[in-house]
Each structure stands twice: as C-alpha cells, then as structure tokens.
Write a structure and sequence with these properties.
The complex is a heterodimer of chains A (about 350) and B (about 130).
Chain A lengths: L7 H10 L1 E5 L6 E4 L3 H8 L12 E7 L5 E11 L2 E6 L4 H11 L6 E4 L4 E7 L3 H5 L15 E6 L2 E6 L8 E7 H13 L6 E3 L2 H10 L35 H10 L4 E7 L10 E3 L9 E8 L6 E7 L9 E6 L2 E8 L9
Parallel strand pairs in A: 1-11
Antiparallel strand pairs in A: 1-7, 2-5, 2-6, 3-4, 4-5, 7-10, 8-9, 9-10, 12-15, 12-17, 13-14, 13-16, 14-15, 16-17
Chain B lengths: L7 E2 L4 E6 L2 E6 L1 H7 L2 E5 L6 E2 L4 E7 L3 E5 L4 E6 L2 H4 L3 H4 L8 E5 L11 H7 L3
Antiparallel strand pairs in B: 1-2, 2-3, 3-9, 4-6, 5-8, 6-7, 8-9
Classes of the chains: A alpha+beta (about 350), B alpha+beta (about 130).
C-alpha cells in the first residue's frame, strides 16, 4: 500500500464525499476454530467474544500480563465455533504467536491466514452503492460491525461492515489470487470518479479525524486500554480469568497515570508524534506528549492527540505544544474531531 | 521532471533565481512532489541574515516536516506572504507563485557553488 496515489488531501476528501478503495492486504487474518475457540479467545483477549452473536464483530485488544497493550484488533464470529481475528500488520506475527500460546489449554486451533489473504476496503458514503451490484451479500441488512459470507466479483469473500475512516464502508476479505480481480471490478464500477484508490497517508488522516487510535502512536505496551479511553473494551466482569486481568483490575483501582486527549491548535503549525506538550507557557518540563497530529483536511485546522496528566485533561484546557523552537497554543477538545453526518 | 534552465540548484532541493543583487529562493518540483500536499510554511523574519546552508524555515506537508536551507548567504528582504493563505502554491507552482524568500546576496560568488539544471537533473535521477 503506497502512502499516496494522487495526494493525501485529495484522497481524504474523496473518502469523505464519495468513496475510497484501500488495499489493506498487509493486515493479519487469524482463524480460530474449535469447541473451545470462544473460551480460548475470552482468555487470550480483554473482550468477551463468547457474547458475540454469529455474524457480529467487536473491537478488542490483546494485553500483556502487566496490562500493556500488545495490539488492538477486531474479532468476527463467523460460526459458533469459528472466529476471525484481524490484528495490525506490524503486530500480526506476535499476535498470532501469543494467541496460539494462550489457546494451549483450550480445544481450539489457530490458522494464521495472513500470507494468503487479501483485504480490500471500500470506504465512504457511496461505498454501499458501489459494492452492492458486485456481491450477493445483503449489504443493506448488514449492520455496522457485522460480516457476511458470499461472492464479490465472482470471488469467494467475507464482507464486513467495518472500517477505519469514520465513514460507512466495507472490508472485503478474499484469497490473494482473487484480489486483483476484485480490485479491478470495484474500480470499474466507478464511471465518474465515485471510487478512487487511496493510500496509507489518507488512511491516517481519516482515522485521526475520527479519533481512532493507531497502534504505535496512541497505543503501546506502556498504556492500558482505559488510559487510551478504551476501558469499555475490557470486560473485567466476564466469567473466568484472562491474561492481564489482575493488572487491569489494579490499574482501574489506581486510576489512570495519563489520559489520551484531542487537541485543536490555535496557531499555525503541525504537531507531530513525539512533540512535547506543556501545561503552561513558562514550563520547561513537558507534562505530556503528542501521539499523532496533522492538518485536519475536513476541518481545515491542525489537530492532534496527546497524552496529558489526568488532572489537566478536561475539555477546554489550554496547553502549549513545543514545535521545534516555538510553542503553539492548543485546546483540549472532545473526540472525535469529525463525526459523519446522519 | 520539471527543472527550469537558468536557475541554480542546491543539493537540498532549493532553487535560486538571480535578480540583480538579489536572489529569489524556492524549492524544486521534485522536492514539492516528494513532500506531497504542503499545508504550512514557517517563514523567517525579514531582516534576518543567513549563511549558506543555514536553516531558515520549515515546510510542513501532511506527510512530514522538512527544513529549508539557504542555498547562499544573504539577508532576507522579503518573504512570500501568499504562502500563509495558500501554502499549496509550493505544489502547484514551485518555480513562480510558490517562491519562498528574496535574499539580498551577501556572497554573490556562492551562486557558483550551486548546480545548473543539467547537474541537478542528474542528482535527482531524471
């Protein structure tokens, strides 16, 4: 997947107003099967896949025993005893190995299909009308965070109503050998620029506007799901033990060490990953750090996400971002920065 | 690749157009394409003296931030104010409307250290 095809701003706007086509084949695909698959995943992950209805999905995380986040992922339940787990590309191998290890005591097997599976996403308000004529999966009935099995452009596929852009859209899993044909068939449906290929750069600005975390920027082994504002993903009350439970229970009791916030810059400049954040213009020592930042193509202002101390993270708080030799004021704002109309 | 004759080029992808005792400075089409959509240009103050190779500003694109280096020594006598409202001029018209600063050259002979169009084209492989 290239950073850009025609330009990040152009591709970003394309997804917000029409539809973009993304080649996400680098993502991991792990199939977990067996009578113990649901219980095994409930032990391996912080969510409770046992509660998923067949055909539904949820956002989850896999944590270290100390509560640090190994990766964020999506879990799809395709039959009562078969799940699809989709980790990030950079973490696919470690997630595959870790889940396999944690399934040891359960009647379940893991098949890492990452190398033979392609993932093509169609995202944007026109996604459904572009994809619908090419598939026998009933897209209109497919709820957000659901998936269906069927055909797409003649290829056997799983179609999920998930995405990472803040728009309506679909993610299509096919065998590698079918990917090019599916990609071409989708683009051929676009007669007047309704669908155009989009790259990693636009994917990043789209997810940032939508307030979605990126592993390696917002999420890592040094933060807990709750600190990242994703405590709802962790099911501390689910039956049985799970890896990281004791640490996450203790972390909940202790309260967050830091809080992930949204920032809107008040003066020109772009805040980037790693830039320091100060609570007061005279402060010499940073109180926080930028995790991601960009111009928001939709809002036209610079936006960022940052770690701040828990006591200084409420909406309206004014902070200073160290951008090279200057300080640029920014306000803490509620996430997401962008919410799709309707 | 768009590399106009008559300009001088630095290895850092700035161009210099001689204009009497002055030199106008911008970045090349190659550099603009590599940066992608430019969204902000941090400009120096008028009156600042620059030595050859000194950082005088920063170009921010959606992708990345990149320093600007003075291709020759000089005093900044004008900056392109249009870039504040339209930083994308760097992408759309890098050799004309997307100029960045005007220098009063203090070491005019330094222009001879820069590449001509053919040598710059060779540097960027095209």
């Amino acid at each position: 997947m290239p950073v850009q095809y025609r330009g990040i701003l152009d591709e970003h706007a394309q997804v917000r107003r029409a539809a973009g086509l993304f080649d996400l084949s680098h993502m991991g695909e792990l199939w977990v099967d067996g009578p113990g698959a649901a219980d095994g995943l409930a032990y391996a992950l912080v969510s409770d896949p046992r509660t998923l209805a067949v055909g539904r999905a949820h956002y989850s995380m896999i944590c270290e025993p100390d509560g640090g986040i190994i990766d964020d992922l999506i879990v799809y339940r395709v039959t009562p005893e078969r799940f699809l787990v989709v980790p990030n590309a950079t973490n696919a191998e470690i997630v595959s190995a870790t889940v396999a290890e944690r399934l040891a005591g359960f009647d379940a097997t893991l098949d890492d299909a990452s190398e033979r599976t392609a993932l093509i996403a169609v995202q944007g308000p026109l996604a459904r009308q572009i994809l619908a004529p090419l598939t026998d999966v009933a897209l209109e009935a497919l709820k957000y965070y659901s998936l269906g099995e069927g055909n797409v452009a003649g290829a056997s596929a799983w179609v999920a109503r998930t995405g990472y852009t803040g728009e309506d859209g679909f993610e299509v899993f096919v065998a590698n050998g079918d990917a090019q044909a599916v990609w071409d068939a989708l683009l051929a449906r676009s007669t007047d620029g309704e669908l155009l290929p989009c790259g990693l750069g636009a994917r990043d600005t789209l997810r940032l506007e939508a307030g979605m975390p990126l592993y390696g920027n917002e999420l890592d082994r040094d933060c807990t799901p709750a600190e990242a504002g994703l405590g709802r993903v962790v099911k501390l009350e689910k039956p049985g033990d799970f890896v990281g439970k004791a640490a996450l229970v203790a972390a909940t009791a202790a309260g967050p060490r830091k809080v992930l916030v949204g920032l809107t810059l008040r003066d020109p400049g772009i805040a980037r990953h790693g830039y320091p954040v100060y609570l007061d213009p005279a402060a010499e020592v940073p109180a926080g750090v930028i995790t991601s930042g960009s111009l928001s193509p939709t809002l036209g202002t610079a936006i960022a996400m940052a770690w701040l101390p828990p006591g200084s993270s409420s909406v309206g708080t004014i902070v200073d971002i160290g951008i090279r030799s200057s300080r640029v004021a920014a306000a803490v704002v509620a996430l997401p920065f962008y919410r799709r109309p309707g | 690749m768009d590399v106009p004759a008559g300009l001088r080029y630095s290895d850092d992808h700035e161009w210099l157009r001689a204009d009497g005792a002055d030199g106008i400075v911008g970045i090349t089409r190659y550099a603009a394409d590599e940066l992608g959509d430019v969204v902000f240009v941090e400009l120096p103050k008028v009156g600042r003296s620059l030595t050859r190779g000194e950082t005088f500003g920063v170009i921010e694109s959606v992708k990345t931030a990149s320093d600007l280096y003075a291709p020759v020594a000089g005093e900044v006598i004008e900056v392109n104010g249009a870039l504040a409202g339209a930083p994308d001029l760097i992408n759309t018209d890098p050799y004309a409307a997307g100029w960045i600063i005007r220098l009063r050259l203090t070491e005019p002979a330094e222009a001879g250290l820069l590449k001509d169009a053919d040598a710059y084209r060779a540097l960027i492989g095209g």
